[in-house]
Design brief:
274 residues; alpha/beta; sialyltransferase cstii, chain A; eight-stranded parallel sheet; three-stranded antiparallel sheet; globular
Length: 274
């Protein structure tokens, strides 16, 4: 059977040659052969995952951005990796390219911006690019206006055919400017020293001295991107008769994505994991 990532790459290549005949996206399975429940967990990096045991995860997973540093420490990796943050990709391109070479995941969804510093990734059969998905006729990625790596990972799960999406660690409650942070001339932020306590992430050293990153802009970027996802998801599932359920696992104190999706207690995740 052809790898799903290879199928998507083939579709992207076909779109480049001729996009006039596309009316749907074949990566989404809605036929009778699809199992009743095809679950996936989209894993953010928020503080609600503090002390979370990743090694207990048994199903398909999608992980994000700089968490691969932690995954290396615990020798656990998600099925898919997503990172479409231009600043993070550019600043950490050597380490991200090395991570991809380690071949721990089945697929990697990146932004083409990394090709300016890592052009060889274009030839990696497991790597696909957000900008290519956005060019495909019939692909819900066409309708993205604002996005972040988390919302892109969610929509990626949709086109991969998952019909139960669990989100964990997507807290959307960033402290916008840490005491250990300086603002650079280009508007990005620099971690001057590794935080002793980082309220934004599930481990305090998620960001370390020397890291460059975008200001979170939670309300103007992250939450807006999730509003767009809900709009896209509603239209896409109705047009394709694609039934699905979405759950946001969080704590009582953190709203996370519960304004959009059904709330569940993160403490019950493993007892309810499908």
């Amino acid at each position: 059977m052809t790898n799903i990532i290879e199928e998507i790459i083939d579709e992207c290549d076909a779109e480049t040659e001729d996009n006039s005949h596309r009316h749907g996206h074949p990566a989404v399975t809605t036929d009778v052969d699809m199992p009743p429940t095809k679950p996936v967990t989209v894993i953010g990096n928020g503080a609600t995952l503090k002390d979370f045991d990743f090694n207990k995860l048994t199903g398909d997973t999608i992980g994000l951005t700089m968490a691969y540093r932690y995954w290396r420490k615990i020798d656990w990796y998600p099925k898919y990796y997503v990172n479409v943050d231009h600043v993070v990709l550019n600043h950490h391109h050597k380490d991200i390219q090395e991570f991809i070479k380690e071949d721990k995941c089945e697929g990697y969804l990146l932004s083409r911006s990394i090709l300016t510093v890592c052009p060889d990734l274009k030839d990696n059969v497991k790597v696909i690019f957000l900008e290519d998905l956005q060019k495909q006729m019939g692909n819900p990625f066409q309708y993205l206006i604002e996005w972040c790596s988390g919302s892109v990972a969610f929509l990626f799960a949709v086109i991969l055919g998952y019909n139960r999406i669990n989100t964990i660690g997507i807290d959307c409650n960033y402290v916008e400017f840490l005491p250990e942070t300086s603002k650079c001339q280009d508007g990005t932020l620099l971690i001057r020293e590794t935080p002793t306590s980082n309220p934004n992430y599930f481990i305090d050293d998620y960001q370390i001295a020397g890291d460059r990153y975008n200001k979170p802009n939670c309300e103007k970027v992250h939450m807006v991107s999730w509003c767009h996802i809900v709009f896209i998801l509603t239209g896409y599932t109705r047009l394709n008769n694609f039934l699905m359920s979405v759950y946001c696992y969080t704590t009582d104190e953190v709203e996370g994505l519960t304004k959009f999706f059904t709330k569940k207690d993160i403490k019950t995740f493993f007892s309810e994991e499908v």
